[in-house]
Design brief:
Layout (H helix, E strand, L loop, with lengths): L1 E5 L2 E3 L7 E2 L4 E2 L6 E3 L1 H17 L3 E8 L4 H10 L3 E6 L5 H13 L5 E5 L10 H9 L3 E11 L2 E8 L2 E8 L2 E5 L12 H7 L4 E5 L29 H10 L5
Parallel strand pairs: 1-6, 1-8, 6-7, 7-13, 8-12, 9-12
Antiparallel strand pairs: 2-5, 3-4, 9-10, 10-11
Bound molecules: flavin-adenine dinucleotide.
Flavin-adenine dinucleotide binds next to helix 1, strand 6, helix 3, strand 8 and helix 4.
Length: 247
Amino acid sequence: MKVLLCISHVPDTTSRIRFVNNQTQFDTTDVQYIISPYDELSLTRLLEIKEANNDLDITIITVGNADVEATMRKALAIGADDAIRVDAEPVDALFVAKQIAEVARTRNFDFIMTGKESIDHTGNQVGEMVAEFLDMPSVSSAAWLEIEANKGIITREMDGGKEVVEVKFPFVVSGQKGIAKEPRIPNMRGIMNSRKKSLEVVPAVAQDTVSVISHYELPAPKGKCKMIPADNAAELVRLLHEEAKVI
Ligand SMILES: Cc1cc2nc3c(=O)[nH]c(=O)nc-3n(C[C@H](O)[C@H](O)[C@H](O)COP(=O)(O)OP(=O)(O)OC[C@H]3O[C@@H](n4cnc5c(N)ncnc54)[C@H](O)[C@@H]3O)c2cc1C
């Protein structure tokens, strides 16, 4: 069996977020990049399936410039088998989905997996767009995934319950929290092996850009914290009423 896992290269969650050029561009100075956490958890689940069945080739794909290769090598070190980089800036979600779909179209993957959303732009759309381009069924936000001979069995969490969906190959699925307990950390052997694994670079195909980010805004800075003595509940009530105006 063959799976194509989409990996998004995103700023570490501890990065200081700043924008430049009239708030139109993310300032990448001193930013460390990581595998987007839902992609990392999806990779972990796929490795568990591979270890149980001994029959799953995991190819990862990232749409990005050469600087994403360090992130891709980490996924190879964790255990993915090989990698494809589409050599282009990921200008919007439709562009990214088109590139992934075009790679998948000729390579006969049994299924395609994405994360639920990237943690930078949090668009929550690439997987569904890939499915649409390829005319495949798509199941979003999988909290658990089992793979049998010709189908996936996907558990989705609902308000107060669970939904179990069976879907025949080929399909697209996105993984969310719960798909695996903990992301795996690459060990030394994995890091050494990752250097020998194939990382193919392919050119992008044409796709019109349909959305442009006009600007970014940071949340308003938090107000100053006021300390109120524990025995002065009346003052607390007065401040909540007159200043915060929440009661
Ligand atoms: C320099 C720059 C400029 C940008 N300008 C714009 C713009 O003008 N308009 C706009 O809409 N967006 C813009 N983007 C956002 C960029 O296109 C996003 O990467 C893209 O929209 C996908 O992010 P998302 O949050 O929509 O993905 P989601 O749909 O949230 O991601 C879901 C899953 O899709 C997969 N995935 C996402 N991105 C990739 C990827 N690059 N390669 C492989 N798999 C992936 C991952 O598995 C991820 O978990 C820009 C990004 C960059 C780096």
